[in-house]
Amino acid sequence: METLGIWIAALGTLAILSFLYKENPVYRTVEHIFVGTAAGIGLFWGFDTIRTNAWNPAFNPADGDSRKLMLIIPMILGVLLYTRFIDNIKWVSRIPLGFIIGIGSALAIRGVIGASFMNQIIATMKTPLWGEIRLFAIDSLLLVLGVIGTLMYFFFSAEQKGVLKYGSVIGKWTMMIAFGAAFGNTVMARISLLIGRIYFLLGEWLQIL
Known about the structure:
With about 210 residues, the chain is mostly helical. The chain has six helices and no strands. The protein folds into two domains: about 1-65; about 130-209, no CATH class.
């Protein structure tokens, strides 16, 4: 069984890599199999999550646990989402959708304020511009200048001249460096995936490594 799995994985990898030459029926077939399998697994885990976290606690609680009937409410809201496929009552689907958008927005705003706002400010200023280790001081100074320059670059309420102009130039170069580093990390991650598949083909499949 393990050998069969290795062969299936190897042939699937080669089929996907064949797209580098051109799109072909073999690639499309494996692509559809992958998407279908992923959708099936997602559907299974979705039902399993509902059964484990909602249905069983509400109707089949474990020994010693009381029934959590309040979980019936989110299950009903989930079912109401599918009324959008019935023309006469599709407006009902807006009720659970409103709950999802409201709760999701609240959680997202809380996370954004913490992760993308407060934590960024704290990370910018937590390293002092003075101290025993001069390298950390220089690093902190560059970080502060980069942040201030980037903010100046997106300040459109005044003409870009004088201090604002030079700050914008610093911000532009800071963003170029940041985008380049992010792109480089993405390329490195993709190359590591490719190396992993090649190592699998030459090692576990062909066993020449």
